[in-house]
Amino acid sequence: AKQLSGNRFQLYSPSQEERGIENVELENDLYKALRNDELNVVYQPKFNSKTNMIIGLEALLRWNRPNKGVVRPQEFIPLAEETGLIIPIGEWILRKSCEQTKFWHNQGFPHLSVSVNLSPQQFNQEDLVNKVQLILTETQLPAASLELELTENLIIHNTEKTLAVIHNLKELGVKISIDDFGTGYSSLAYLKNFPVDTLKIDKTFIDGLPDNPNNAAITNTVITLANSLQLEVIAEGVEKEEQLNYLTDHGCHLIQGFYYCRPLKPEDVIERVHTS
Ligand code: C2E
Ligand code: CA
Ligand code: CA
Ligand code: CA
């Protein structure tokens, strides 16, 4: 049976064929979604807890599927990865969020930066660096206002090529962060070779704070590691004040999560920037 999170269970498990049909339908719809303007981007702010100011925004994909409501990324990104659709979709969200951020700069908020998630497929395409450069040129967004979030698992594979790509991206002036840090299979050794800027502590570790001793130990280790390598560290998925307090007490002052703010529609961002 399909694995479901939490206490939910499923009495009926669709057969292989039914699942296949569902997937084909999803794939067709996703293909059209890009053309028909059904994809959009929401922006979740990242805060500095010392100043309570917004320091940046993470672009998150949403799909408004006709007659089915908003579909969350977990439900279609894996399929998009499998089918290669993630390449045009990823390029679309990159361009869209650079355009949007340039717009905010022009509105008088030049300190805002944007983070975009890169999937492994996207990262491995031959002309990624050129595409990023082209999009920055087209949108006139300063490279330093763009951060790319990569996952650890991407970094362990194909080390030499990966290193070269990250170097070239850094050369453009964009920032690199390691997303969901601590959940991958990599050794820590790669960190000293890769010119990354930020470690992002995964929500699964933040969830257990402050009471779960294992999560607390992992969190402290990542913060210490980041400090000693002179990297920034940010916590994702912070929902409660106790979690925030724990993190700030232990030296992590960059915070993202529902405690501060949920993902926002682009038109709601500036209002939130004003009140922060
Ligand atoms: P992620 O990169 O780890 O993004 C964080 C996810 O946690 C987002 O879910 C965000 O809405 C959610 N979140 C943030 N704060 C909290 C909180 O305090 N509590 C809870 N319960 N959730 C919180 P979302 O938007 O559904 O995205 C899920 C995943 O889908 C992302 O995980 C990312 O891996 C992927 N994704 C989203 N947009 C893109 C994209 O444009 N490209 C690629 N390749 N992946 C994307
Ligand atoms: Ca992310
Ligand atoms: Ca993350
Ligand atoms: Ca995560």
TrEMBL record:
It comes from the Bacteria. Coiled coil: none annotated. Residues 23-276 form the EAL domain. This is EAL domain-containing protein.
